[in-house]
Amino acid sequence: MMDGETVSSSTRLEMQSNNCDPTTGFGRKIDLLLKVQGSLVEVSSNEWKAKQTSRLAMKQQSKNLRTNASILNQMSLLSKTKLNKVMAIDFVGIFGYMYVLQNVRGFYVAKATSSLFVPKDAKELPLFKNTIKALFKWKAFLEATIDEVNEAVLLDQLETCVHQHVDSPSAIPTTPKLT
User: Fold this and answer.
1) What gap in Å lies between CA 153 and CA 1, rounded to an integer?
2) CB-based contact 69:85 (threshold 8 Å)
3) Is residue 175 included in any domain, yes or no?
4) Number of domains within the chain
5) Could you tell me whether strands 85-92 and 42-49 are parallel, antiparallel, or unpaired per DSSP bridges?
6) How many angstroms separate the CA atoms of 95 and 120, rounded?
7) For residue 140, what are the CA distances in angstroms to 40, 79, 98, 133, 152?
8) pLDDT tens across 43-100, in order?
9) Which domain holds residue 158?
10) Which residue ranges does the record annotate as region Disordered (predicted)?
11) pLDDT tens track for 34-54
């Protein structure tokens, strides 16, 4: 987990693949970027912003959707399209929502799954239960995604190892010639 305006490597890769000028930007800054431990694989970009105008909030939400689309692209490439969903959170002030971004036949479709809020008063705690339940669903989703990413990374390493040893001519055993 990385927090505090970190930059997504997935957005950097997307910028490079689109031949963007590297001097004009270095990737999208993110409030909370979730990565697979011991790996560079990102699984979710999440944003928290202070209460602000709706125009700025919409800009933040759009940025987060694009960042998660980049993350989804990288996970999909790694897993050979097995991973096709990202679950993330956007908060503005004390209110937020959780959503799933999915690649459906080449189109990115986002669907809100839960409304979230942070209570300001003890009387609001009973309503906070729904937010807690949603966070546990998010945790389960992330755990399953991380398991799939770890499997994909292992398969990729195995495939790379096999190609390095089998495809190289020096790896083919030969019988010495008798003279």
Assistant:
1) 18
2) no
3) no
4) 1
5) parallel
6) 11
7) 21, 19, 14, 11, 18
8) 999 988 888 766 778 888 898 999 999 999 999 988 886 889 999 999 988 999 999 9
9) 2-169
10) 1-20
11) 888 887 789 999 988 888 766
**Token pair listed for 123:** 């009387």
101 within 8 A of 86, measured Cβ to Cβ: yes
Burial class, 46, CB count within 10 angstroms (exposed 0-12 / middle 13-18 / buried 19+)? buried
Q: Does the residue 177 lie in any domain? A: no
Cβ contact 83:144 at 8 Å:
no
Domain assignment present for 69 = yes
* d(C-alpha 179, C-alpha 173), whole Å: 19
Question: What's the whole-model pTM score?
Answer: 0.76
Query: H-type helices in the chain, by residue range?
Result: 9-17, 54-78, 125-166
d(CA 135, CA 101): 16
